[in-house]
Write a structure and sequence with these properties.
Number of domains: 3
Strand content: 15-25%
CATH superfamily of the largest domain: Ribosome maturation protein SBDS, N-terminal domain
Distance between the termini: 54 Å
Largest sheet: 4 strands, antiparallel
Strand order of the largest sheet: 10-11-9-12
Structural class: alpha+beta
CATH class of the largest domain: Alpha Beta
Radius of gyration: 22 Å
Number of helices: 9
Order of helices and strands: EEHHEEHHEHEEHHEEHEEHE
Length: about 230
Amino acid sequence: MSERHILARLQLSGEKFEIIVNPDFALNYKLGKINDIDKVLVAYEIYTDVRKGLKASSEKLMKYFKTTDVRKIADAIIKQGELQITAEQRRKLIEEKRKQIIAFITKNCIDPRTNLPIPALRVEQAMDQVKVSIDPFKEAEGQALKVIDALKPILPLKIERVKLEVKVKPEYVPRMYNFIKSYGYLEKEEWLNDGSWKADVDMPAGLQAEFLDKLNRFTKGTAQVRILK
């Protein structure tokens, strides 16, 4: 496959679906920078194997995507699946994500021996030493927490934390429960008489702003939050 055309691939229950896309437009689409799927698609076909020229049947598309609309299926494949980006794209994305991770650590961590922030250069050198692996598509904040754990044996650091009391209406609980757990530890949770769910969540202080923004959007501004410490 030429670097002018790359594949986007999604596996669903062992079944593979592929599309041929423009590398630059596809990457920007996956990152949410553009929303015109027509700029992304090189061919308006859904394949089970591009290299063999095998196209997905309408029956299979209906079974797994509930539609045969190529644009809708392509949207799902790009957003949920794997994008075979070029080597240069990957290098740039990883470098950008690396800088974001370092910025998160220097902003949210201190040296417990001095209670002073840790210089970015020290963080960068420690990351090189432990050979941290960075995913170009995963959020920097979540990866930073794993990087912090990897750095602790060679770089003394402590992350500042915050505790929030969160109350969510019944209709949003099924979706919000795992979302909230993904941001921190549930120290206490309870179901209220009106069906609402309340929990005390301990999380890194650097994730608080992002967490509150998403919580507000997902619950249409109905979630109640109180800072406990």
